[in-house]
Specification:
With 1309 residues, this protein is α/β, with parallel strands linked by helices. The protein has 46 helices and 20 strands.
């Protein structure tokens, strides 16, 4: 520095510059390695002080000294030196005038006059541009790349933000503590809510189909997001080591200091860090802290994923409402939904990780993004959220517009719209609940965008105002010395940030359905584990009562009968009104009624006395609802040990004792014997084992089942009515002469049952069986035990492309293929005990006659069109290719399945024309076909559309259609019917009789359903009494969902178009698919169990029938599982049904020598009879509605009542007591044996061989009279009846067997 710019003596007492230069030479090594950028300026200010108007040398600022020391002292320590005491920084001032480091080549000691005159404007950045990072915030490890950002172009490198002195933390820590606890409580609440939602949904997850399935994944996202906030809350008690660095990054010996500070309190740590290290803990930046990265990913990834899932929810809603897609078609796109929902957040999260744009959030104790970078916040938070909300709202609005149009049309036509409106309310309410919090979050982000820079200025000023504190005592504040008239600045508001965090977690609390939640809580109580009646009331409340009441409340114009009708139904048929015990249906119905205001509610309660009494009684019960629920849990805990012991003893009692007895049980299942044969084959050893088994049962502790565990819900009037029926002899079932053809009868219910015709050349798998054939067999058997005049017919579908294709493959004629596979079908169905009154074929003369007759009548009525069709022609094969001869890529842009057939895509389920396929190939020669025109015939479905719709609306009102069947049919009708081609260029089929088309055959979808009629005609010449008699005959049809359109739209159109008074389906049971271990059955890959292999598993046929019916996919796709099969066999059959039957028979055989004692009913006997009568009523109700799965569960529930009844009555003890106790024991056994007989009758449709075995053990001969199931429990077997020998019905399926079978049918590897 020139001599005329310095002043001496300097601060160290050197009076000459040469002396100063000599002393400064000791620091040349430090200057050469540039350990600190400000070292030279500091040394100059000390050794060669600048000349100024101030008398004497101007001292360096303390900040300048500290920065020089912090940069170089660590280097000096490595070589055994320390910072010179002469240069100790405490001796230098912290306020002007003092010497600072130069900026832009100038020496700054005070602000220029222009700067002093500049007013402090809100939103200006001039006061931030001259910001120099205080040494306390400096990060000397440049690899960490810390940056203090003000905006996209203004930032300070290697500078961090103080952990406890940034924005919110200037005043005190009390606000932070409040926010931490608040966010922690929200996180816990969100976790519990979402976990409860997920858990309750997973109880029966398959019930929740698209478009509502995304709600489950939304819950999952919010559950994981709440975990992150919970982690941050817990970290508060560990000194915030996630959001704040563990070490003092700005100190020289931060690591050593951290070790010495571990024993200090948080305040002492901060004070020690400032006083000794001259630095503070900084907020985490980047990806160095693993816990920080984890919480960031949980919050950001799953927060973005939840937004995408909400968009998908609105998309599926639009697809269902606007595009008329069915849930199975929407579900086919689920792979794309998952790809979008997980890929988009993944890409965005990876981008932020690469940018290392992760910041510690001291408020919540977690890490997030965009907290210190407005552009990152804008690009990765604000803009995506706005886009997702905008897209979702557009889809939502479009869907609602479409649904409102449909609703108006339905209202105009007089069609009920309750379910449609219920669906609209559910989707709309959920969307509002989700969108509103998201809009608030967006508003909070905009608030941060607008005010962030002003918060930084406020923060900077507060730092300078705190210069005299121990916290920040070395900050240079010259750059903010502004006039007193400057604009007032404020920091961020706690309330806004608390609002943001509130709504980031609150959405997770909105996903649980009320009815599902309440039902789950009550399922903890054993008495409500599988009550079909309660399920029906809950469904009625959701689908009928609640929408009607909400329309009344919201003043939507509607007919007064809209609410009066369900109220009358509840008042008249509400069996819940007289229940003594609180149920989940009570809670939901009571809560819905409570939505009415006092005046409305008082008016209706005065009108309907039954509702009034029930409502007031439940108002008292609900006051103690929480206590009741707690009592349920306490009782469950107290009795769990006893129950486990009882179950274990019952399992031991029902389990065969050795291999010999297992063989006996298996043999009894496979080959039922007569009573005489059983008696002759019984051996002494077997008798001894059964006696030992009975002794084990005798030792069961009667206290293991508490009295209040066995609760009956029938009133005294219902009990008396049931006892009157018990004392009346049941109606005897009329016998059927097997040599006579079944014909409709006057004055009785005539039921015609059909099963979808199986393709002749396909070996049926388990899904085919339960989808149609087995279900039809069970229902037909049920109709017979009900006394209905029933005809059950089925047969093989033998015409069409598939048969021709198979014949080409095997080198034989189509007829030979049909003959071969028809025999195989018959063998399979015989083994499965599927018995039709007639099992025929479609390749018959009757088929040709009837199909051509229907065609001519349609032609004469003007419903047949002629047109040219562009068709695929194979030049090499020299033939037009039928649909089954062509494969290619599905033309639907949403699907693009590469192996779609020429008539239908197996993936999306849409019907397509072969010429629409992308890159089609001939399945015969594998060449690419060309398109040529061919003349064909069409059924004019648009002309029949109104007729079909009117018939459908009447049929679903008067008959029983599954929801799947109704949904698919409605989708077809709403989309609009189109002409369908009914002819094909084939040789194997029913010939088209019209001149010019005689070289063609009828298309299989037109021809095959007519097979029901022709098969009946082959059974009886009087077939028209069944098929031209809709006044007397009720037609029930069973099929899987892929066959529904052909039976609900096309086949009825053909019959209606003939105007020939055909019997048309009035009850259609179309169910979903059965998958195999979460995959599809595949004969070619050996995946799954097919009909010709089931008998080789050594599992009795009745077990197969039982399990398939237990998992029948009545509402959604279900899955066959070997493990589940074994569990259901061992629990439901062995431990429940088999245990009760064997116990009752064994007790009777041992205690009363196999003879039924006299009956003297007491209160508990009467209650059991009433309860069984009630269950019988539910059984007949669900079976009449073709809900076969629920019917089976009713039977199992009855056997469960029987087991509890025996446990409470303890006949094995009372038979040794007084005469009255012996009579009571005798009554118990007689009632139990009658229940065993009833179960044998009810089981016959499901498990015919087991039913026969029970009857043999009851000594019911084949020619004994059978009784009609009439919905009442009668005394079928009178005192004095002699039973046969008791033999265990079922055997255990072991885990080793399960694993062996799973491997065997797992497919080709």
């Amino acid at each position: 520095m020139p001599w005329n710019m310095t002043t001496y003596p300097n601060l160290l007492g050197n009076s000459k510059q040469d002396d100063a230069d000599a002393d400064m030479a000791a620091y040349l090594p430090l200057l050469n390695i540039n350990c600190s950028k400000v070292l030279k300026y500091f040394l100059c200010s000390v050794y060669t002080p600048i000349c100024s108007v101030i008398v004497g040398a101007v001292k360096p600022c303390r900040n300048l000294c500290e920065e020089a020391r912090l940069g170089c002292e660590r280097v000096m320590i490595q070589f055994g030196f320390s910072w010179p005491s002469l240069l100790h920084c405490d001796q230098y001032p912290n306020e002007q005038p003092c010497f600072e480091a130069p900026k832009d080549g100038q020496i700054i000691n005070q602000k220029s006059s222009q700067q002093q005159q500049q007013s402090f404007q809100r939103g200006s950045k001039g006061d931030l541009e001259d910001f120099q990072c205080p040494y306390q915030f400096r990060v000397y490890n440049t690899e960490l790349k810390y940056t203090l950002k003000f905006n996209s172009y203004l930032h300070v490198d290697n500078c961090g933000m103080p952990c406890k002195q940034m924005l919110f933390n200037m005043d005190d820590q009390q606000h932070i503590k409040i926010i931490r606890y608040y966010v922690g409580i929200l996180a816990i609440s969100c976790m519990i809510s979402t976990l409860f939602t997920i858990f309750t949904y997973l109880i029966d997850m398959k019930r929740f189909s698209y478009p509502e399935r995304p709600i489950l994944f939304l819950s999952l996202c919010y559950f994981l997001l709440s975990i992150a906030y919970l982690i941050g809350f817990i970290d508060y008690f560990f000194d915030s080591t996630i959001s704040c660095n563990r070490d003092d990054l700005s100190s020289i010996d931060g690591i050593q200091q951290q070790q010495s500070l571990t024993r200090l309190t948080p305040i002492e740590k901060d004070t020690n860090s400032v006083d000794n290290g001259r630095g503070v803990r900084l907020l985490v930046q980047g990806t160095q802290n693993k816990w920080c990265v984890l919480t960031f990913l949980l919050i950001y990834f799953f927060g973005m994923a939840s937004m995408v899932w909400w968009v998908i929810l609105t998309l599926t809603w639009f697809m269902a409402a606007g595009l008329k897609w069915g849930h199975e078609a929407i579900e086919a796109q689920s792979v794309y939904f998952h790809l979008a929902s997980w890929a988009i957040p993944t890409v965005m999260s990876v981008a932020l990780l690469v940018k290392k744009s992760i910041d510690g959030d001291y408020i919540t104790g977690t890490c997030y993004t965009g907290l210190t970078d407005l552009y990152v916040q804008r690009g990765f938070l604000l803009v995506p959220n706005c886009i997702f909300i905008l897209v979702g709202l557009c889809l939502l609005l479009s869907g609602f517009i479409s649904v409102f149009k449909i609703r108006n049309v339905m209202k105009h036509e007089g069609t009920k719209t309750d379910k449609l409106e219920k669906f609209m309310v559910r989707i709309g309410l959920f969307s509002v609940i989700y969108v509103l919090p998201q809009l608030i979050i967006i508003a909070c982000l905009v608030y941060e965008q607008i005010n962030y820079n002003d918060w930084l200025r406020w923060w900077k000023r507060r730092l300078c105002d705190a210069n005299d504190s121990n916290y920040i005592s070395y900050l240079t504040c010259s750059s903010i010395q502004t006039p007193a008239t400057q604009t007032q600045l404020n920091g961020p508001k706690y309330e806004i940030f608390m609002l943001k965090y509130t709504f980031q977690t609150s959405n997770g609390n909105e996903f649980a359905g009320v009815n599902h939640s309440v039902r789950y809580l009550f399922r903890k109580h054993k008495n409500e584990s599988s009550d079909i009646n309660i399920d029906q009331w809950l469904e009625w409340e959701t689908s009928v009562f609640q929408p009607a009441l909400l329309r009344t409340i919201s003043s939507i114009p509607s007919d007064d009968n809209d609410l009066q009708a369900p109220l009358k139904h509840l008042n008249q048929y509400g069996q819940l009104t007289n229940n003594e015990n609180l149920t989940s249906a009570d809670v939901c119905l009571w809560a819905t009624l409570s939505l009415l205001d006092d005046t409305q509610r008082k008016k209706l309660l005065n009108t309907y006395p039954n509702i009034s009494k029930w409502y007031n009684d439940r108002a008292i019960s609900l006051k103690s609802f929480v206590q009741k629920f707690q009592d349920m849990n306490i009782k469950k805990e107290k009795t769990s040990g006893k129950t486990d012991k009882t179950n274990s003893q019952q399992e031991i009692a029902s389990k065969p004792k050795d291999d010999h007895q297992q063989q006996v049980a298996t043999k009894a299942q496979k080959q039922p014997k007569t009573g005489d044969q059983s008696a002759q084959s019984s051996k002494k050893k077997e008798k001894t084992q059964q006696q030992h088994q009975t002794e084990n049962k005798k030792d069961v502790n009667p206290a293991a089942v508490a009295p209040d565990e066995f609760l009956f819900t029938q009133t005294s009037e219902q009990i008396e009515a049931s006892i009157r029926k018990w004392n009346i002899n049941a109606e005897i079932l009329s016998t059927i002469n097997p040599n006579e053809k079944i014909k409709p009868k006057s004055g009785v219910k005539n039921v015609l049952v059909t099963s979808a015709l199986p393709y002749v050349n396909n070996v049926p798998h388990l899904g085919n069986l339960i989808g149609s054939l087995l279900s039809a067999d069970v229902f037909a058997r049920y109709c017979r035990i009900r006394g209905y005049n029933t005809l059950s017919i089925c047969g093989t579908d033998e015409y069409g492309t598939t048969t021709e294709t198979k014949a080409l493959e095997e080198g034989c004629t189509p007829q030979q293929i049909c003959d071969k596979y028809y025999k195989l079908h018959c063998e399979i169905y015989d083994w499965f005990q599927i018995k039709f009154d007639y099992f025929g074929r479609t390749s018959t003369k009757k088929q040709t006659e009837i199909a051509q007759d229907i065609f001519w009548k349609l032609h004469n009525q003007g419903y047949i069109l002629k047109d040219k069709v562009e068709q695929l022609y194979c030049a090499k094969c020299k033939r037009f290719l039928a649909d089954r001869y062509v494969a290619g890529t599905c033309p639907d842009p949403k699907c693009k399945f590469p192996d779609a057939r020429g008539d239908q895509c197996d993936k999306c389920g849409k019907l397509i024309n072969a010429v629409e396929l992308i890159q089609p190939t001939c399945q015969i020669c594998k060449n690419s076909p060309e398109i040529k025109q061919s003349d064909h015939l069409f059924l004019d479905l648009p002309k029949l559309s109104d007729t079909v719709r009117s018939w459908f609306e009447k049929s679903v009102t008067t008959g029983h259609w599954t929801n799947t069947a109704k949904t698919i049919t409605e989708a077809w009708l709403n989309e609009g019917l189109k002409p369908r081609c009914i002819s094909r260029d084939l040789k194997w089929g029913t010939p088209v009789p019209l001149e010019g088309y005689t070289d063609k055959v009828f298309y299989v979808w037109f021809d095959a359903p007519i097979g029901y009629i022709s098969i009946t005609a082959n059974y009886t010449d009087e077939w028209k009494q069944w098929w031209h008699n809709p006044e007397q005959v009720e037609l029930y049809q069973f099929m899987a969902k892929d066959n529904v359109p052909f039976h609900s739209v096309i086949f009825p159109s053909c019959l209606l178009g003939t105007n020939d008074n055909y019997t048309i389906v009035g009850n259609l049971s179309g169910i979903d698919y059965l998958n195999y271990e979460d995959a599809k059955f595949s004969k070619s890959r050996g995946l799954g169990v097919f009909g010709d292999h089931a008998k080789d598993t050594d599992i009795p046929v009745d077990i197969w029938r039982f399990y398939l019916l237990y998992i029948r996919p009545e509402t959604q796709d279900s899955t066959f599982s070997w493990e589940d099969l074994a569990m259901k066999n061992n629990s439901e059959l062995l431990n429940n049904l088999g245990n009760f039957v064997n116990r009752g028979l064994s007790f009777c055989e041992k205690i009363f020598n196999g003879q039924l004692p006299e009956i003297h009913l007491d209160d508990l006997d009467r209650k059991l009879i009433a309860q069984i009568t009630h269950e019988l009523e539910l059984y007949t109700d669900v079976m009449d509605k073709t809900r076969l799965r629920d019917g089976l569960k009713s039977i199992l529930k009855m056997s469960g009542y029987g087991n509890k009844y025996l446990q409470l009555k303890t006949p094995w003890i009372k038979c040794k007591g007084t005469e009255d106790e012996k009579k009571e024991a005798g009554t118990t056994i007689s009632v139990a044996i009658n229940l065993v007989y009833l179960l044998s009758v009810l089981l016959e449709p499901y498990m015919p061989l087991t039913s026969l075995t029970i009857e043999q053990q009851l000594n019911i001969s084949h020619d004994s009279p059978k009784y009609v199931v009439d919905g009442a429990f009668h005394c079928y077997l009178k005192p004095g009846h002699k039973i046969g020998q008791a033999v265990p019905l079922f055997k255990r399926i072991e885990k080793a067997t399960v694993e062996q079978l799973r491997q065997r049918f797992s497919g080709k590897q």
